[in-house]
Amino acid sequence: MSQKLRVTVWNEFRHEQINEKVRAIYPEGIHHAIGAGLGEDFEISYATLDEEEHGLTEEKLNHTDVLIWWGHKAHREVTDVIVERVHKRVLGGMGLIVLHSGHFSKIFMKLMGTTCNLKWREADEKERLWVVSPGHPIVEGIGPYIELEQEEMYGEHFDIPQPDEIILLSWFEGGEVFRSGCTFHRGQGKIFYFRPGHETYPTYYNEQVRRVIRNAAAWAAPTTRPVPVYGKSVPLESIKGVQPQ
Amino acid sequence: MSQKLRVTVWNEFRHEQINEKVRAIYPEGIHHAIGAGLGEDFEISYATLDEEEHGLTEEKLNHTDVLIWWGHKAHREVTDVIVERVHKRVLGGMGLIVLHSGHFSKIFMKLMGTTCNLKWREADEKERLWVVSPGHPIVEGIGPYIELEQEEMYGEHFDIPQPDEIILLSWFEGGEVFRSGCTFHRGQGKIFYFRPGHETYPTYYNEQVRRVIRNAAAWAAPTTRPVPVYGKSVPLESIKGVQPQ
Amino acid sequence: MSQKLRVTVWNEFRHEQINEKVRAIYPEGIHHAIGAGLGEDFEISYATLDEEEHGLTEEKLNHTDVLIWWGHKAHREVTDVIVERVHKRVLGGMGLIVLHSGHFSKIFMKLMGTTCNLKWREADEKERLWVVSPGHPIVEGIGPYIELEQEEMYGEHFDIPQPDEIILLSWFEGGEVFRSGCTFHRGQGKIFYFRPGHETYPTYYNEQVRRVIRNAAAWAAPTTRPVPVYGKSVPLESIKGVQPQ
Amino acid sequence: MSQKLRVTVWNEFRHEQINEKVRAIYPEGIHHAIGAGLGEDFEISYATLDEEEHGLTEEKLNHTDVLIWWGHKAHREVTDVIVERVHKRVLGGMGLIVLHSGHFSKIFMKLMGTTCNLKWREADEKERLWVVSPGHPIVEGIGPYIELEQEEMYGEHFDIPQPDEIILLSWFEGGEVFRSGCTFHRGQGKIFYFRPGHETYPTYYNEQVRRVIRNAAAWAAPTTRPVPVYGKSVPLESIKGVQPQ
């Protein structure tokens, strides 16, 4: 029996099938590049939009400790019933790592409660992701910054709730900054948003980007948590001086 | 022309019409007791569930700086189109004060992204709300704690995102604690959740409770804010070495 | 009797006396440029390092609502007794705005509990301060960003506790980012750290920089706060079943 | 070679030598009861006030991953040089767990920057510590709350900076609440303040209290962190158009 954390990498998997440039970079799909970067410490599986139930059956989610999400052009095609299902699982403790354009995914917007809007520009710009929480396990093994020669720019204002922790801040050649590595807790679940990864760049082969995702998967794992008790409460004996007989 | 902040008090207004005990306490409805507590510093208006569009027309919301929300038994009857409208206005800068059982309102749950679940008990318990952020304008003029002789109990775990600030913590006679005064920022809007106010107690006549709501209304007012620019960005001259002539 | 907030601008006031370049920009001292930017809404006074008690007598501090601090090369000459005095006043509710190189002042380090270290470079770089909390009163009236043609660079990692709110993030031409506008609450006091203002640039004449400082002074003002009760507590009648007669 | 985390338990160790009641509960000292609760997963050692350098030599601290601190009546006898040494190590990544009356220790006050004051009462009161961050690893394996039949009361306002996370909130029989389990990040170090443990109660034999301390020690362990680069920065080739040859 495996004791490894079970990570499911979900990918929209459309760009790779219709855009030659993207396919040249990620011939098996972005999900497989992400999965390859996770290494041997996890039990990895994959799911994509065009599978039955987008590959996210109850069975599948109930056996997932951490879900990684990459989507971009087909957010609207993700059905609400699956979004509800993932939402419920995250609140129940499943970790969630949302990558790049996943900021506009239904599941991320539902968890944030805001528009998740931002500025963007495709101009092959240099990006530097500076570590601002150097003691955090998500940046274990990373240097003072990660440099990506070319990426899409995302700029502030990023319309999200104040993150619980900001781990990485991006600098872009063209003059913008961005909160690129952010943690959130929702219910019993841990969420990490990580900015890089536009489909036309080989970002998910970068060793430091892979290290961050690997660290984040370990960080987001569920704990054997207290199970909160909700709803109507049994009266306590201490109330109103009523003592047990 | 009035320069006062425009506060709209929204009330479900059902208990008062069908429950004699509640009507005896709030003969004109909870909303009018809340409004009376706001005093002369605001331009106050009212809206209730059974009005057309629940009283929250586009016109009305566009002329509201801060919306106060009390609801309990009919959350589901609030239509999604109105929830969307209020949500959009909050993200655009309108303040929102959610009271007591409003924790389960559609608008609060949508803004939080969590279940907003909690424990509760109706047992006429004493409640003490301790100030834990004594420098905060929301507790200006309040003593070390507010004591309410009898209230409904709400207990942790309260399933909300980590608040931006915790202002008040409740102690209950029966053994529970609760994060009773919490601020959140969502988009350009400021949100304050304030726990007390079960319909069968005269809580909204309490002078300290009124003071907190009054302070919160002033705190939640929109600022003449920066208007963030979202979406595709114009390339900057500094990109890729293209210099202005 | 004046009802205006009383702001004291403290300046080390050494560069201006020994460096011609600085004197040319700030002939009356940096403090007077900052004070001029505050406008008519405050009762403004000044204090400098070489005055008796650095100009910060008990009398002076007891009549100060918000203290603005600019220091750079003589942090060590500020005596510990004055640092203790300011510290006590901040915890008691006086607002504090720490500017630029004040990150290494004794008072800021004492309040933060960390080294407050950072990277820096003097290279006449362009700086852009992006607004990341657009609903916050400190950026009322500011656009999406503030641009300064030339400033000293400060880069992450900035060794401070996680701020309560991050209001502004800086981008620098040379490749760095910085948390440039941060709020902290300590005791009953509100603290705002604001990065720009190296002595060799005319930064404190910039209208948007002045607006931020003006907003921050209003935000940092003390409230008529709850006075917390500390120390040994009187036993409460409800303890151990002892009922009042 | 041991791969276990190295935990040093520091105890003032005075009450146990002069107070029979305390000695009866903790005959070998509070530190040994705490150490026994940590179990087999750590390499445990001890240090006490009356040892040379309080048992906290450079050598010792350099071989400590997590330091646990219990002190009460002799905070002032801890020399400043040792406080500086511990402070430097925490900022450099060593974990720190501060227990109970350690809220007034020099090291905790220095890290917080505030008075760390609170209310207290010795009246053999029941305490309930409610979990408010159920997904956090520090409460792994804990139920909805921990109940202690008798403890000293600590009440709000607790004069600390806003914690990065609040994990546990205490309810006391006599009417007070307290933020009893709080995390802070300072420099590269992780800090956990945990309230229970007055010397006249057998609190450190409680299995759930021990579990929290054990979890916290694992959580506070240093990571192989990014080493931030501080100070004057080498000019970057991208500045001012100077290109490498």
TrEMBL record, chains A, B, C, D:
Residue intervals of the ThuA-like domain: 6-220
Domain of life of the source: Bacteria
Family matches, as SUPFAM superfamilies: Class I glutamine amidotransferase-like
Annotated signal sequence range: none
Coiled coil regions in record: none
Annotated Pfam families: ThuA
Name used for this protein in its record: Trehalose utilization protein ThuA
Organism classification: Bacteria, Bacillati, Bacillota, Bacilli, Bacillales
